Structure formats: structure tokens, C-alpha cells
Batch of 3 targets.
Target 1
Amino acid sequence: MINSSNPNVTGNPEDDSVVSNDFSTALGALILSLVFLLGVPGNFFIVWSILARIRRRSVTSILILNLALADGFLMILTIFFIVYLAKQTWIFGNTMCKILFYLCNTNMYASIFLITLMSVHRLVAVVLPRKVSYIASKKIANRVIVVMWLAVGLIAIPSLVFRNERKDINEMNKTRLVCAPDHTHPQHVRFQYTFETVLGFILPYTIIITSYVLILRRLRQTKFRRNVRSEKLILAIVVMFGAFWLPYHVVNMIQVAAEWYQEDSDTRIILDHIAKSSRAVTSALAFISSCANPVLYTFAGKSYIRQNGFAFMAKLFEGISSDTTGDKKSRKTTLATGNVDSNSISAQNGNEV
């Protein structure tokens, strides 16, 4: 392993740093620059809208607030990666190499776990309306969120362990410093990337898909009309996150697959080349998911812009909250009678969840 105080140490021959391909590096730097310009003001506008404009925050609003805080903080960190990609050398030292990538992984887990919590919360509100006051109360939600943040801090530790500053020889045979994965055994590669993809993508999406299947099944069983803004918005967040993170996890699995072949085999060489040439772009695409939510909310709340100005996003989130709160009692009535007209649904309002 190499550290910043000993730059003469020979680097790991495994070259899977994000600067191993010039075209991918340049494209990645461009994407991250746009992400920074959109993501920082966009996410902190969401934070301001919820904290300053919404007095009674629902569970959904609290989850969106945490998601915006996580994404906004990550957007601030992109400036380091823009410099890294632009210079194609790591200038921030070994400690920052570890910390920055650890924080990025923490954000990845936090984002998908928060989105999973949104989906589970909607499931509880739709399928278990009589228990929603307790299960989905703000007090319980806040405790779950605290536990989640502690959990993601622990789950992201492998990115802290398997990441180091080291020397690398580029295509021009020039030596440079890179911040790259540092695996001494093939088992480490297989463990880190499989662990990351299973916990950061496959398992959460299994829960999310299951939640929405159960939600749709219950809505078909009850057969009453209702406003589904919250389901539509959360589903859009889910789909968008998956679209931007899927390529990253595909590259992870390509790297895992490569480790099962001999180093000099043609298949290993091809898989390694695909992973190396794609890593910068797929990593940059993953960052887009953190700046895309403000854009999504803007389109979802465009009907409020003319009337409410800068308060439009707060009105959007209040509307989502009313969807959730209006569901609870209406579902109780539906379960009891088997049928509810649209006027009775719109007239019923429960406590915030």
C-alpha cells in the first residue's frame, strides 16, 4: 500500500482507476461539472423549501429532506473529482483519497436506503392503514432514519479499507498518482464489489419492487379512486435512481467476473478493458442521480410555480403529504364498506404520516 508521505512506493499493477482512459476521463469531468452546477443549488433549495416553508412536515417530507441533504453534500464533494479527472492525477493525498470515496459510498447507500424507506412507507400507508399512525409516525420515522445513517456509515467501511493513493504508469509511460482500489487478493475484489452491488442495489430494489407490487395489488382490490401524486413521484425517484446507478453496478459485476479468469486469458483482458474504459463515465452517471431529483421536483410542481413562486416546492411536498394523510381514514372506510365515492375520500383527512 502507498501513502502520501511515501510517493516512491511501487504501485499496484491493477489499473482500475477512473483516469485510466482519456476519453472516459474527459467525458466524466464534463458530466461532473454540469452535475455540480445543477446539484448544489438544486438540493439546497429543497432543504430550504422544507425547513423554511413547511411547518408540519410529513414522513415523506422528512425522507426527502434527508435525501436532499445527502445529495447536496455529495455535490459539494464533486469539485475534488472534477479536479482529479481534469488533471488525471490525484493531488489531495492518501487520507483524502480514502475519506472522499468513503463519503461517496456512504451517500450511495444512504440514497438508496432512503428511497427504500419511502417505498416501504407508502406500502404501510396503503396496505396497513389502521397501523399507519404508529408504524409510520414521525417519531418512529426519525428513529429509523438515525439508525439508517449509522448503518450506512458502517456498511461503507470497505471503501475506506480498499482504497489508496498509489503510483500508476499511464499510456505515455509517465508516472502519476491515482486514488484507486487497492486489492492484494482477487477475493478482495470479489468481496468489495459484490458486497457493494448486493447491499447498494439488488437488495434495496428487491424490497422496492415488492413494495410496489403489493401497493398496486391493494389498490386494485379496494377499487376506489384517489390522487396518487406521492406514489407517482416516489416511483419516478426510484426509476431515475436505478437508471443512473445500474451502469455503475454492471461495471462492478464485470470486474468481479474478470477476477475468475487467469490474468493472461483473453476473456480477462476483454473484461478488464471494458471495466477500465467505462469506470469514469459510469461513476459520473451515478452522480447525476443526486442532481436529478431537484429537476424532477420542478417538473412535478410546475403547476404551483405561477401562483406560489419560490414556495412552489413546499406546496408540492404539502400536496404529497395530503395524499398520504387523506389515505388513512378513507382506506378504513373502504375496508369496512367495500366502496367509497370520490366526495367522501376528498373530505376525509387524518393525522400527518
Target 2
Amino acid sequence: MHIVGINIGQAAAPSGLPLVRVVFEGQGGESIAVEMARGDVADGALGAIDRAKALLVQTATFEMPVDRIGGFNRTPESGNVRGRQSNVYTFEYRDGDQARQVPPAVMPSFEAARAEAIRCAIDLLVPATGDDDLTGWLVRMRDQAGNELCTIDVAEAEAARQANDNTPL
């Protein structure tokens, strides 16, 4: 989804707990809403957006088995996601001349985390405006200890975007 707008507002849980709602609006009318408890991380606009992105990454990559009647099996598998070792990764995004880091995300594998880093880098290509050509890194991925595992730069993101554009639906 190509994000064309972000709205932040207030919401309430059925229990009455105040929530922050972040709605990512996509081209063509799609939207994704993330509601989260208010708190230090989610009170500021940038903090709310960063936290919502982290929750989306964690949710999109979490594979929960479905039982025979279509409900989710809520029994957690200790440390595994469908039998694969889960890993914790931290993503660092280029924001102009600065870097922004989102809270750590649990991903099923290095390959899944790297694919997410590439998707995010492609998204960062689009809003790049101005007269200067965008160069250098867009997304860095680190392990739980803070070691840099991979860096997605402009050239790799552009190549991935072109490959995606040439893939038939």
C-alpha cells in the first residue's frame, strides 16, 4: 500500500480506556488503523506513528495458527512461530539527515526481517522530494544486541521497486 496520508486521533476501548488511533491512508482508498493505549511513547504525533508502524510490522509477521473452526489458537508457542525460531530486530529509518529507530520487532526469520526492511526502504523512496538526488542508506536492521545485520540503500530499494513494478498481479 502506498501511503498518501496519516491521521492521528483519539479513540476509546470498549472498557472506556482512552486510546490513540493512527490511520494510514493509502492510494485508492485503502486504510489501516492502529489503536494503542495512551502513554509516553504514543502521546506525541511522531511517537504515535513510530509505535503504530512497529505494531504493524509485528502483527504482519506474526503467524498464529488457526484452529479447525476458524478461530485463532491462542496457545503461545514458547519462542517459536510455527516451529521457526523467532528473532528480535530493530529497524532504523533514515529521516532526512537523521535516523529514527522504532521499538524492537519479533520476526520469524532474518529473511522475513530483511524483506520488511526492503519494503520500508521502497516506501521511503516515494516521499523523497527536493532538488537533491537521494543517496546512501534508507533502512538499517540490527539484532537484539545492536549489531548491524544489513543496510538497504537507495540503489537496492530502487532495484526492488522496479522488480515489484514488473511483477504481474
Target 3
Amino acid sequence: MSKNIEACSCNHSYQRYIVRLMSKHTTLYSEMFVDEMLIHSQFRSNLIRFDKSEHPIIAQLGGSNKYKMLEAAKLLEAEGYDGININCGCPSPKVAEGCFGARLMLSPWRVYDIVQHLQRHLSIPVTVKCRIGVDRIYFLKLCFAHNIVEYDSYEELCRFIRIVSGAGTEQDRKSFASASDDEAESDPLMPPVQSESDGIQRQEIQPCYGAKHFIIHARKCLLSGLSAKQNRSVPPLHYDWVYRLLDDFPCIDFSINGGVLSLGQAKDLLERKSQSGRQLRGVMIGRLLTKAPWNFHFIDQFFYGEPNPSLSPFETVMKYVEYCEQMEKNGYTQHFSTNELLKPLFNIFVDIPGSLRCRREMFEAVCKDHKPLREAVMQGLSYIDKNTLHDRSPGDPNRLHEYCAPK
């Protein structure tokens, strides 16, 4: 089984393109598309398009209705995405109000039903990204006392994985088969069933249609009291829970997410073994990508045993500028300001002498002087040492933990 580095925080094609210039093998993830928005948006083609160089690329999809999820997933499959990832981990309060994202962890049977429905009708893999749990405080606000379950315990996490993977126990299967839709739903505020076809499918649970790969953000999600940003850093990390899952579910693959701030840390997590000797399928990196993206230039060397792309930092930046200019000619950048297109470049030279001046010059050239992207970039790069701009040195494997986000 291959070991993957998976990059999130790439919300748009132009952001993913520059990552692909730095690494040929990193698996890229799209922003989270919402099923109804994708189905009805007049800008859909621009939202879901991507450059062919971005493969392998996975589309994140959010929603709670299996029919709408399938309709949206088919659009993404037709566009050429390599897989669909059902997002059960987004901590946004707006997303929670829409009854998807991390809120779906309260309804594992519904998640299973979505997964099996997509698996039956798509030819690309369907995976699930989730948290290790959601807070009990939020759940207490939703339920009567006799329905209370600890939704942030390891046992409840196992129940979620067991059900969504289709590996439920005999007791799970019997209770599911005999329960009403309301009883099968743990979340009483989930959209009500309007017709028999809207409900959770009452057929025999079949493991072959369950999820076989979970990307676990090793923090619980506090749906009550924390913002989306705080939920990405405040709840403590429990990597050990993910390694326990490797032993408790030997036929399922797991990737880990959350708090990975250096390539050395990612390497350690991939090489660490569970008690039974199993290892993770992958490590998802988000914050390192936004804080110090040039570290991704060394991923192919350190994680895939292949040479890094031959482009220097200067050549990488200018290839990105050429890409943005071509997108503008094709009419794809009409929804993005030049400042937005600059953002992926802001931290390329982080912690390098002249980097702050470079960033400020590029920003002011665009926002104050209204210069085109190429001119603004060249103005900023003039403050970076030429040796740094044209450096093609490979990474040093003895300094893996130094390839990290700034403190």
C-alpha cells in the first residue's frame, strides 16, 4: 500500500496548481462543494474546473441528502476528479446549521446510506473525512435525556467507523433494520423525511458498499462555543486514537489530519506503527501549506523516493504567473481579484531575508498602484537574494524537522 501526503487548504484551482508545480505526487483536495450549490450554480463550470496537471485530485463534497449528493458527485466524476470525499469534519457553524460537515457524525446511519448510494452509482472511490468526535454539550441541547450518548468518546468513534464502513455488529444491523428513520437518526434536527424515498435506505447492510478509507482529523469538534478557526487548533490532538483504529479495524485504511507542522512530523506519523504493526495510509497537511508552502517542493524526494521538480523558486513563481495569465485570457479569473491570485505567493519565501518586503511590495503594487500580476510579482522578487531565487538544491534528509511552518 502506498503512503500518501494529502494537501488540503487548496480552495481553488490556482492554489492547487502551484502546489503541483512543487510536488508531482501529493494528493490534492478541492474546497468543500455543497451539493445544492453545485447542482444549481450558474458558475458551476468555473467552480469545479481544474488543470489536468492537478491529478491526483479528490473533490470534497458536503450535504445530507443521498440523492442530491449523488447528483453533485456525478457532476464531479464527469469533470474528471479521481475520487469523492464526504466531509463529516467541517466545524463551521453555518455548515452545522445546514446539517452536514461535523454535524453528520451525529448520524452515522445517514452517512453510511450516502456512502453506499454513491458507491453503487459511481466508478470512482468514495472516502470519508471526519473528526474523532463532536462535543456532548451540543448534543445535550438537541436531545432529551434518555437519548444522550457520549459523542466524543473513543467507543462512539468506533461506532461511527463501524457503521459507515458497513462493518456494523449484528446488534447494529438488527436495531437499524427495525428502527424508524427518527430512531435511526441521532440528530433530531436533521431535515425531516418528506417521503419514503427520502429516508434512510432499509436494505441489508453490505460492507462492500461502505467506506474503506477514512481521513481522521485527530481532534473532536466543539460545535458549541468555538469558531471554525478555533476548532482547528484549540481541542487537543489524540493521534493515539487513530492508531488504535488501525488495530480495531484491520480491513480499513486510515489517514491522519490535524497539527502537522513539519515534514519531519509527517514522516514520523507515517513510519509509526500501531500495536499490531499497521501503519497509516497517509498524512493530510493544511497549515504547513499555507504558512510555508515551499516545503512541498521536497515532498517527492522525502516521501516518494523521486527527484524533486527541477524548477527553482523563481521559475516556480513565474510558471504560476503564466498560468494565471492564461486563466485570465480564458475568462476563468473573473471571480478572483489580482490580490487573491497573489496570496499563494505571499509565504513562498517565508523566513528568508527580504521576504516581508517582497510581500509588502507585491501587495501594494496590486492594491495601491493597480499593477498587473506579473509586474507586481517582479517588483516584489527584486528584494529576494538571487541565489535564493535560483536555488535548486535537494532537501537535506537529516533536517526534516526544520522543514516546518514558522513559529
